[in-house]
Amino acid sequence: MSALSRDEVAHVAMLARIQLSDAELDKLAAQLDQIVGFVATVGEIAADDIPPMSHPLPLVNVTRADEVRPSLTADAALAAAPHAQAGRFAVPRILDEE
Which residue in 9, 1, 2 sits closest to 28, CA to CA? Predict the structure, then answer.
């Protein structure tokens, strides 16, 4: 018996705004049930003596130092812009907000 019903998969698809056919719902219900089973298996294998981790190897800060370096002036950067306004790049409005 499947732990995930077809109706549950249809509900999740509706929440995600994904339209699925009846055949796709049946197929996904079976696939998602398998995935849930695999995750449960991993949960059973996890030992109490192994601490939770996000990465198997220790990580160090890999970002570079934040140093001031010579760069373009504002005028030089805006010189190649198709349109500039008040010392800034001007781009077309995409939202109807004021």
Answer: 9
Backbone φ, ψ for residue 89 (5° rounding)? -70, 135
For tokens 């995600």, what's the residue?
Answer: 16
pLDDT tens profile 76-97: 999 989 999 999 999 988 887 6
Identify the structural domains of the chain with CATH numbers, from first to last: 6-45 (1.10.20.60)
Which helix (H) or strand (E) segment is 47 a member of? Answer: none
The encoded tokens of residue 41 equal 């298996």
Low-confidence ranges of the chain (pLDDT < 50): 1
Please count the other Cβ atoms lying within 10 Å of the Cβ belonging to residue 87. 9
Residue 24 identity (one-letter amino acid): E
Residue 57's CB is within 10 A of a number of other CB atoms, namely 5
d(CA 46, CA 16): 31
Close Cβ partners of 32 (under 8 Å, ≥ 6 residues apart): 4, 9
